[in-house]
Amino acid sequence: IAEERAFQILFEACAANPDGDLWEMPTITEGCKKSVLAWGAAAKDFANYTDPATKRLVPVPDLLARPPADPTADAVAGDDFCFSYEELYRRADMVHKCVL
Q1: b/e map 35-74, b = 16+ CB within 10 Å
Q2: Roughly how many angstroms between the first and final C-alpha of the chain, as a whole number?
Q3: Is residue 75 within 8 Å of 63, Cβ to Cβ?
Q4: Mind listing the pLDDT tens digit for each residue in 58-88?
């Protein structure tokens, strides 16, 4: 449900400003943002995911093309799941083989 709400917020922001920068669009409510800021930490530090030349976020496919610093590190996580880079690549390879 949280993911659905995040997409709803993003889609509404895109509809309200179709020429805006997608990476600068909100994905959380203002109330949620205030709560996170009240904890004293940013919602997410994207410094490691930013292209130094353009100062923009690197697209996910480009990030996944890089070798992970730690293959056992969490690559994707949600409420009820967590995949390491090894597991993510293994599953992606299974999909790739099925599609070919």
Answers
A1: eeeeeeeeeeeeeeeeeeeeeeebeeeeeeeeeeeeeeee
A2: 33
A3: no
A4: 888 888 788 877 889 888 888 888 899 899 8
Gap between the Cα atoms of 22 and 9, Å rounded: 12
Cα gap 83→72, rounded to integer Å: 9
Q: How far apart are CA 38 and CA 44, in angstroms?
A: 14
The residue that leads in pLDDT, 67 or 18, is 18
